[in-house]
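To the wet lab folks,

You asked to see what we're planning to order before we commit. Fair enough. Below is the target structure as tokens, and below that is the sequence we designed to fit it. If anything looks off to you, flag it before the synthesis order goes out.
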């Protein structure tokens, strides 16, 4: 017999079906709550609200489990490549050899962007944050590919938009950086793999020879895999909700980039490094900052700590911590910030405030340290996160469209003034 949940309100009883996912997570289906009882639910921050059924990513915050399409993140990070993981997320299965080759070839073929996009780029001041530049350029693709404005067109056209997004995002990301530096942009080099091409566009200078370091390229590939999807977070839900109005995929992804930007979401990786720098400049006293984070009168939070769903540990942080040690050793980088990070982590993990609230290092606590070691400047960290999260956003947008999900439109509990008469200005 299927399960149900009962709600009693004002002497009446209402019954709602309980649905169970493939990993035995249960949810009360309240689709008929308002029409039957007149009630809505109130859940600020959607902490208990499932907005969709999804077959892409499974996450168990208590057990520290993360799987893409059923595959463990630990296995994917160790054995796969970012493009293979992108294919898996978007199309649902790991690609065969020939599917993988075709997919990579298609992406490589579309890395170049229209020359007029360079003019848009040149219009940005050099101090523009690269996240704002990136989201603008991605949204500008709607103008260059107007067919994408109708997401109901045939599957081939949608697929072409998907390929273009994955292909052009590294070009835009590298160009946003070049604009910031006041350097000429580098065009894609299609003889290179995805990450090596990005690194060359970022770092090659016209007057110098540049060879991509394979250690750097493979570390970057791993970081992108770890960021590739994370079910219904702030930016992903944004992508789905914008897409639910049938806005184009480029507009939806651009909105996701903006949602990711904030320091409580993807912007945390930049904030972590700025925080560690500040601690170093202030004499390296980790305890002082731990106390600030605990002080409810101080808005300071320990950046890179805490997570909406991970209440035990963040499995990505475990992999990244080890990767940070490996990369720093291989590249011979001795970063004093890493020592402060370790000290802070140790102190926080042994502090009752953090223990009581189940606050553990999240993915961003260590990713910034690796990015620094790879030579990526601090304000590009969140751009790197966006580059990694792109296939997840695409997969979630595609799933939302394929499921014919209705337009997203939450309700509210109104707490403002009751009806009142207008009083003209000279009588107020
Ligand atoms: N430092 C100090 N106290 C904290 C922190 C922190 N980093 N995070 C949460 N708390 C406290 C918070 O003050 C609250 O305390 P109390 O119960 O006494 O009021 C309690 O822990 C619960 O916090 P919350 O804000 O209700 O938790 P949330 O689930 O709404 O927020 C979070 C999750 C990630 C926004 C939050 O932990 C945070 O601001 N962390 C720092 C920013 C950060 O690292 N963000 C990256 C998240 S991982 C990357 C991604 O996937 O986006």
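Sequence we intend to order:
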């Amino acid at each position: 017999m299927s399960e149900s949940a009962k709600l009693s309100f004002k002497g009446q009883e209402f019954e709602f079906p309980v649905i169970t996912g493939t990993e035995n997570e249960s949810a009360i289906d309240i689709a008929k709550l308002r029409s039957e009882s007149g009630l809505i639910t109130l859940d600020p921050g959607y902490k208990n609200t499932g907005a969709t059924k999804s077959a892409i990513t499974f996450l168990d915050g208590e057990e520290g489990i993360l799987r893409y399409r059923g595959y463990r993140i630990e296995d994917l990070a160790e054995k796969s490549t970012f493009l293979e993981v992108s294919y898996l997320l978007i199309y649902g299965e790991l690609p065969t050899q020939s599917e993988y080759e075709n997919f990579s070839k298609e992406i490589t073929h579309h890395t170049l962007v229209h020359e007029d996009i360079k003019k848009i780029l040149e219009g940005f001041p050099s101090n523009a944050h690269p996240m704002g530049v990136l989201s603008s350029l991605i949204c500008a693709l709607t103008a260059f590919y107007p067919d994408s404005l109708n997401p109901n067109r045939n599957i081939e056209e949608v697929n072409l938009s998907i390929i273009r997004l994955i292909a052009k995002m590294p070009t835009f990301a590298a160009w946003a950086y070049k604009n910031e530096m006041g350097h000429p942009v580098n065009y894609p080099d299609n003889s290179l793999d995805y990450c090596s091409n990005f690194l060359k566009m970022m770092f090659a200078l016209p007057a110098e020879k540049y060879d991509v370091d394979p250690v750097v390229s493979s570390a970057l590939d791993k970081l992108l895999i770890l960021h590739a999807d994370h079910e219904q977070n702030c930016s992903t839900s944004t992508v789905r909700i914008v897409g639910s109005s049938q806005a184009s995929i480029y507009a939806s992804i651009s909105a996701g980039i903006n949602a990711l930007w904030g320091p409580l979401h993807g912007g945390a990786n930049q904030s972590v490094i700025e925080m560690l720098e500040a601690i170093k400049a202030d004499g390296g006293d980790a305890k002082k900052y731990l106390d600030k984070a605990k002080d409810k009168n101080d808005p300071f939070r320990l950046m890179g700590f805490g997570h909406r769903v991970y209440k035990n540990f963040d499995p990505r942080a475990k992999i990244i911590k080890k990767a940070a040690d490996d990369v720093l050793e291989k590249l011979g980088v001795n970063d004093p910030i890493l020592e402060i990070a370790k000290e802070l982590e140790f102190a926080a993990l042994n502090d009752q405030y953090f223990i009581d609230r189940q606050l553990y290092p999240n993915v961003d606590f260590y990713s910034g340290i690796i990015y620094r070691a790879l030579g990526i400047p601090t304000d590009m960290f969140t751009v790197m996160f966006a580059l990694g999260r792109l296939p997840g956003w695409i997969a979630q947008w595609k799933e939302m469209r394929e499921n014919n999900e209705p337009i997203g439109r939450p309700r509210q509990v109104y707490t403002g003034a009751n009806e009142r008469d207008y009083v003209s200005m000279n009588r107020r």
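Structural context that might help your review: The mean pLDDT is 94. The pocket of carboxymethyl coenzyme *A is lined by residues 45, 230, 233, 264-266, 268, 293, 301-308, 357, 359, 362-364 (CB under 6 Å).

Thanks,
Computational group
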